[in-house]
Amino acid sequence: MYRLLFLVLLITLAAPATRAQHAGDMAGMAGMAMPKATSSAPGAAVKRLTLQGGWVAATPPGVSESAAYLTLQNPGPSAAVLVGASTPVAAHTMLMTSHTDAQKRVSMQPLNRLSIPAGGRGTFAPGQAHIMLSGLRRPLSPGTKVQLTLRFSDGSARTVSLLVRRAAP
Ligand SMILES: [Cu+2]
């Protein structure tokens, strides 16, 4: 709880607009429909993606937020576009970018989509971007696993299993 208040305070101080966007994004996610598949082979690019080094930050009891980090490598000939995620352990899951200013204040912005280009990669890493888990339904203990379902713009989804860790590997 304290950490949540601290986070909200930081967001408010750093960028007043961010908090409103944050809330708006969360409200939008609740009623979001799955995008229709637009490709003749839906999920083809998504199936080729490989997960590299995914993990979720451990939380002590009483902390309601955490973040997941991962890299998706795309060896295929077409881009995959990540548009959202969900997990059974949290009420809300949001793609976000982080920015640290000269005063070391961290601000976050919702990320609507992350394109993983053909032959390239998409990365969520501390200090850059994260998949925010809020409204945690249980403390995340180191060594346990979290199932995270990633949703893509073609309507396909991939579920990955991520290790809970105290710190980045
Ligand atoms: Cu965040």
Automatic annotation (TrEMBL):
Q: Which InterPro entries match?
A: LpqE-like (IPR007410), Lxx211020-like (IPR058248), PCuAC_sf (IPR036182)
Q: Which UniProt keywords apply?
A: Signal
Any keyword Transport? no
Q: Where is the signal peptide?
A: 1-19
* Name assigned to this protein: Copper chaperone PCu(A)C
